[in-house]
Design a protein that fits this description.
The structure holds five protein chains of five kinds.
Chain A (H helix, E strand, L loop, with lengths): L1 E4 L2 E4 H34 L15 H10 L11 H17 L18 H22 L3 H32 L4 H6 L6 H4 L1 H14 L11 H4 L9 H25 L14 H25 L5 H28 L4 H27 L7 E3 L5 H4 L2
Helix pairs in contact in A: 1-2, 1-10, 1-11, 2-10, 3-4, 3-10, 4-5, 5-8, 5-12, 8-12, 8-13, 10-11, 12-13
Chain B lengths: L2 H33 L29 H29 L1 H24 L6
Helix pairs in contact in B: 2-3
Chain E lengths: L1 H15 L22 E3 L1 E2 L4 E2 L6 H5 L5 E7 L14 E9 L8 H5 L5 E3 L3 H4 L10 E2 L1 H9 L10
The chains are: A mainly alpha, B mainly alpha, C alpha/beta, D alpha+beta, E alpha+beta.
Chain lengths: 381, 124, 179, 375, 156
């Protein structure tokens, strides 16, 4: 049996081997690059310089980090559950890694096109949760346990809005196949028709990635690093690798599903280099915004986090699916369909803003200022 | 290439990726084992407790808030799995399928509303 | 003005100060006034001090609802003084209350029943001076290690630690001798 | 577990969490043991004393000039305010009149110090609520700016030892006024940045509103001072109620909160920073050339016997020095009444019933300096 | 949502600004004239001897007792055929930089202007691996002044 690769027919095994290697190398390089870029970008946001010492402009910082982590002692607490503790990195990393199978970089540039691509991706990436719980439970550390449980509660809560928002787009695109979804956006990206779904996706994606403002499982100032307090050296770096790989995958999927991937705005007939450039630009934009949000907003509290997911995002995403269903099932004229979809999305965004505003802005004036008068003290009594 | 081959061709990749992922982790761990120093010291194994000795074993029973969300999640996630195939095929089936799903989601929404009302979504 | 001058001055002579009002509020308690450098100081016998403090807090004219500070002074053989700095947030006046303790009987009732703020201050005085506050709700050590309860560092007879000379002069002297 | 009765097996146990002495959020070496049920705090026990260096005992062996350096070390974020209490206590005991120019300069430096200290609070508090270091770096940018000025004047960035009983150690630099104005202009932008970064932020509001509430009566009863007390609605500011230096001659407002929660404390501090800028600007216009030490200044600092409790308004609240002198050149007893010590007492009341994450935020909102608490 | 957008605009505005950090070991901040690092002894260039006469004033005034002073008869004094006007001179001087709290009191009490706070970067970069290496002896204390790099600042 053969499979096409770069215009050649190749045995499946060889083809897979080559593609896997590409993915492994790509992932490693991307993660290292992302870590470097994140540090540089965050530094600029904070008016710092970021890494400058290792290599020109600190470019080799991630390499140095990786080398340090490999050559660092791997300590296991005496009280830890050995199996659970040691296996947790696998369960964190492998599910993220198999997500790369369906991630499309450009047309024809992916490991495999699965018909249930989107579904597969979501299913695979949620397994990684198990690893977090294992890490938390196995470490025999209070912070780790709290962090692990928090990550479960958070991830499962945001799994639903994430799934449903992607489903809403899948309804519009009428496919779960990522390549088809992208191809369908040659005219206009889905974000135009599903702005609220995009917003929900973006929020849920940040939450799934445990990044600020949803980083309560690893909240530095509360649980000191959460499930991986006790991890060190190479095992700890596996968590790190998984985190950035997941960020990369999610940003890629987001740009493919909502921003038109490589198809928009030039169409699919453009050459492969241009497609890659487009994908890169869109993914970078997503990642930049994630960094930007990280550097700006405070961490949320667990009850607010849960309430936000269950009381706001979930009902809104259900509503979006119902609206989509109603609009699409009656075969209306194309313009009207799109107008209704976009209108409902925009309305949803406004509802969201309104609810958020209403929930936090109790009437709270600025502090009372007591000016200097001769009887100030008595006057204020 | 027939259908089964197609399926094998695609999902073999998933299998291969799983193995590759494990190999990746194992390689890293072996590399670390070879490169990293290793010393046995009695106090190194104490778990981190902000500089104090651990008060007692950490693995106790924990507040059930977390589990309540887990239960809610299982319900809703199973429903979401049902919605997936529906979402891709209801247009062909027609409005009837939509109304059926409306009822389905309505029941779900009632469940959510019930949980909300009961205070299951409140943390305290 | 020093304490000798104050003792010589008649009681009601603190014109423009709050002493006369304090005297009224403390009726029935044998209080001795003293004109301090900044605030009026009232000496109350230690058996009556909590009663006096409560009277000062509840009296409508005084209303000392705010405990600025509570501390202790070791008078080297002459016993100790427990000092309360009071302030009234409504009236805006200050007062210092002192209770004298004999060196061989360092007991006093707790002021936590009057102001909760006294809690940690009393714990600090307890471990630093060895004054026992009766009925204190939480008489653990505060600043010192938990097992260090037999020595009272802020007493005058407690020696300062030897200055550590193992590095500087020690090494230097050694080289000089060897030369 | 096996020995438990069946009905007990389903009972959840409270988890004891140790926060500190070595925890990213405890602002120094402070330890609080939280008893949590899931995420809700049921009880808090605070342990202090890790930084206890016997500063009071040491000060009893130091003469009045040597003691100044130790005051810097008790309150390392508002050193000028700490020195001020000490030297003013000595001046009060010795009955020294401080020349005008020295008083104005002291005021400017103290207010600048308040500014830098509050910047530090805003930054550290930002980290406590979980902003990834942004507020912190902003705050440090502003603080470094102010510290540069201090370094030009006093020669040191942190431990100034600049105030002396009677006045100042030496004259300020020639371009002092211009430099202060320059620093103020930068700081105004800094205040705007800090304000814009967090005050309106919805997540920040959600995190801080309504938690750590302490009522005015409770705050007074616990002896809280400074912004913690003012946030509860008590307009108690020593600069206003018992003006020292030249505070009676400048216009400024005392910000007062309404609810007494963490958000109010934040707002009060932000507003205090603006007021500090206002005070400094007025001081600069009133600064006249003149001597910095009184004409008849004794060479040896000896006080007559007596005692004084001198309090000033430091950024964290009332910083008091209780100095007992039995004559001679050193205090017989020196008690430092630290603002954070009093504020920290109320932590338990504020925290019980809130979430673990809130405990961190509440602790941060008290703006504790552990060196000051433990002395 | 509006507030978050405002916050994000603030961070974006700082993204556009120049970084304020300095790459420390390569670029040093210019130190002000009054900068106080650690105390060093001054070298009288005309007499080829230190200003210090070993009068113990600084040693007595030091709050942390970090100094040790030993004086001797000046071998270079006029009475013994030299050209110096100092009868006594410093024999040995140790300052434990590990103890010093840089309070400037020794400089203030010195009657001979013989001691000064180092106001160069050399005074700040004194990290060593062993605390014993922080005890400076007389040649070390004089080195900074003899090299001529020190610009002593005397309080007006």
């Amino acid at each position: 049996m053969t499979w096409p690769l770069f215009g050649m027919d190749m045995p499946v095994v060889l083809d897979l081997f080559i593609r896997m290697n590409i993915i492994v190398i790509l992932m490693t390089v991307m993660v290292m690059g992302l870590i470097y870029i994140e540090r540089k970008v965050l530094a600029r946001f904070q008016m710092r310089l970021g890494p400058t010492r290792t290599g020109p402009m600190g470019l080799l910082q991630s390499v140095a980090d990786a080398l340090k982590l490999v050559a660092k002692e791997d300590v296991r607490p005496t009280n830890a559950d050995p199996w659970v503790f040691e296996l947790a990195p696998y369960f964190v990393f492998v599910p993220i890694f198999i997500g790369f199978v369906v991630v499309p970089f450009a047309s024809g540039l992916e490991v495999r096109v699965l018909d249930l691509g989107l579904f597969y991706l979501l299913a695979a990436s949620s397994v990684n949760l198990v690893g977090w719980v294992m890490a938390g439970w196995g470490s025999d550390n209070r912070y780790a346990i709290i962090g692990g449980l928090r990550s479960v509660a958070q991830s499962i809560s945001y799994e639903l809005p994430l799934v449903l928002s992607l489903l809403a787009v899948a309804m519009v695109a009428d496919s779960l196949n990522l390549t088809e979804i992208v191809a369908g956006q040659a005219g206009a990206p889905n974000i135009l028709w599903q702005p609220m779904a995009f917003l929900i996706f973006f929020i849920a994606m940040i939450a799934e990635l445990n990044r600020p403002p949803f980083d309560i499982p690893v909240g530095e100032s509360e649980v000191v690093g959460g499930p991986f307090v006790e991890y060190s050296g190479i095992r700890w770096s596996m968590f790190f690798l998984a985190e950035y790989a997941a960020l990369f995958i999610m940003a890629l999927v987001g740009s493919a599903v909502f921003l038109g991937g490589w198809a928009w705005p030039f169409g699919e007939q453009l050459g492969l280099p241009w497609q890659i450039v487009l994908t890169t630009v869109k993914t970078s934009m997503m990642i930049f915004v994630v960094f930007w949000v990280r550097v700006t907003v405070p961490r949320m509290r667990i009850d607010q986090l849960m309430a936000f997911a269950w009381k706001l995002l979930l009902p809104l995403s259900f509503a979006q699916i119902l609206v989509n269903g109603a609009v699409l099932v009656y075969e209306l004229p194309s313009g009207l369909t799109h107008a209704l979809l976009a209108g409902s999305g925009v309305a949803g965004v406004f509802i969201m803003m309104w609810v958020i505003n209403r929930s936090v802005s109790r009437p709270r004036p600025r502090p009372v200022l007591i000016p200097r008068t001769d009887q100030t003290w008595e006057a204020t009594r | 290439m027939d259908h089964l081959d197609q399926l094998f061709g695609t999902y073999a990749a998933v299998f291969a990726a799983t193995i590759a992922g494990f190999i990746l982790v194992v390689t890293a761990l072996i590399a670390s084992r070879l490169l990293a120093p290793f010393s046995v010291e009695r106090n190194k194994g104490t778990s981190y407790e902000c500089g104090m000795l651990p008060l007692r074993r950490a693995q106790t029973s924990i507040g059930m808030r977390y589990y309540l969300y887990a239960i809610l999640f299982i319900i809703f996630d199973v429903e979401a799995v049902f919605i997936f195939p529906w979402a891709l095929s209801y247009v062909e089936v027609g409005p009837m399928a939509y109304y059926e799903m409306l009822v389905f989601i309505g029941i779900l929404a009632a469940g959510l509303a019930y949980a909300w009302k009961k205070g299951a979504l409140k943390w305290q | 003005m020093t304490s000798e001058d104050a003792a010589a001055a008649p009681l009601q002579s603190f014109d423009g100060t709050i002493w006369s009002a304090v005297d009224k509020a403390l009726s029935g308690i044998s209080a001795q006034p003293e004109r301090g450098v900044q605030d009026v100081i009232v000496h109350i016998p230690r058996d009556e001090v909590i009663r006096g403090l409560r009277a000062l807090k509840t009296n409508a004219d005084m209303a000392f609802d705010y405990l600025r500070c509570l501390t202790c002074v070791d008078n080297e053989g002459d016993g100790m003084d427990v000092v309360y700095m009071l302030y009234s947030t409504t009236k805006g006046h200050n007062l210092t209350v002192k209770a004298h303790l004999d060196a061989n009987d360092l007991h006093l009732d707790t002021a936590t029943t009057v102001w909760r703020a006294a809690n940690w201050y009393e714990r600090e005085v307890m471990e630093m001076f060895g004054v026992r506050f009766r009925n204190h709700p939480d008489p653990r050590t505060l600043l010192m290690p938990e097992d260090l309860t037999d020595t009272f560092p802020l007493r005058k007879d407690h020696p300062l630690a030897e200055i550590e000379v193992l590095q500087g002069e020690g090494i230097a002297w050694a080289t000089e001798e060897s030369v | 577990m096996t020995s438990m009765a069946p009905e007990q097996e389903f009972e959840t146990q409270d988890l004891m969490i140790n926060m500190g002495p070595q925890h990213p959020a405890t602002h120094g070496v402070f330890r609080m043991v939280l008893q949590v049920d899931g995420e809700v705090v049921r009880d808090v026990v605070s342990h202090i004393g890790y930084m206890h260096r016997g500063g009071e005992k040491l000060s009893e062996t130091m003469d009045f000039r040597q003691g100044i350096g130790f005051m810097d070390r008790t309150e390392y974020l508002a050193q000028f305010n700490a020195e001020l209490s000490y030297v003013m206590a000595v001046e009060k005991l010795m009955d020294i009149e401080v020349p005008e120019r020295s008083q104005w300069i002291r005021m400017i430096l103290c207010e600048l110090n308040r500014l830098s200290s509050h910047f530090m609070f805003t930054g550290a508090f930002g980290t406590d609520v979980g902003v990834f270091g942004t507020g912190f770096t902003y705050a440090f940018r502003e603080r470094e700016n102010i510290l540069d000025l201090f370094e030009e004047i006093t020669g040191d960035r942190l431990m100034y030892a600049y105030f002396r009983p009677g006045g100042l150690a030496w004259e300020v630099t020639d371009n002092f006024v211009a430099r202060v104005r320059e620093v103020l202009n930068v700081s105004k932008q800094g205040i705007k940045d800090m304000d814009g970064l967090l005050t309106e932020n919805e997540i920040f509001k959600a995190r801080t509103q309504g938690i750590g509430v302490i009522s005015a009566a409770d705050a007074i009863d616990w002896g809280s001072t400074g912004p913690v007390l003012r946030a509860s609605g008590v307009p108690l500011d020593l600069r206003r109620t018992e003006p020292y230096l030249k505070y009676a001659e400048v216009d400024f407002d005392v910000p007062v909160g309404k609810v007494g929660d963490v958000y109010d404390r934040w707002l009060v501090r932000i507003e205090e920073m603006r007021q500090s800028v206002r005070i400094i600007e007025q001081c600069l216009t009133k600064l006249q050339p003149g001597p910095i030490l009184p004409e008849r200044m004794p060479r040896m600092l000896r006080t007559p016997p007596g005692e004084v409790y001198l309090r000033t308004e430091a950024p964290r609240g009332e910083y008091g020095i209780y100095m007992v002198s039995k004559g001679g050149n050193r205090p017989h007893r020196l008690k430092i009444r630290s603002a954070c010590f009093a504020n920290l007492q109320a932590l338990r009341d504020m925290t019980i019933g809130s979430y673990v994450a809130d405990a961190v935020v509440i602790l941060g909102s008290l703006d504790i300096v552990l060196c000051e608490v433990d002395r | 949502m509006k507030g978050i957008l405002k916050s994000m605009s603030v961070t974006l505005s700082t993204f556009m600004r120049k970084p304020v950090t300095r790459e420390y070991p390569e670029t040093h901040k210019e130190l002000p004239e009054r900068d106080r690092a650690f105390p060093v002894l001054l070298w009288a260039e005309e007499d080829k001897e230190p200003f210090c006469t070993g009068c113990h004033a600084c040693e007595r005034a030091c709050p942390v007792e970090c100094m040790t002073v030993l004086m001797k008869d000046n071998p270079n004094h006029k009475s013994v055929g030299g050209d110096s006007s100092r009868r006594k001179i410093i024999d040995k001087f140790w300052i434990d930089y590990g103890r010093c709290m840089r309070c400037n009191i020794c400089v203030e009490v010195c009657n001979f202007d013989a001691i000064s706070m180092n106001n160069t970067w050399a005074g700040h970069e004194t990290s060593v691996y062993d605390r014993a290496d922080l005890v400076m002896d007389l040649p070390m204390l004089l080195a900074q002044s003899r090299s001529g790099e020190l610009k002593p600042w005397v309080a007006p």
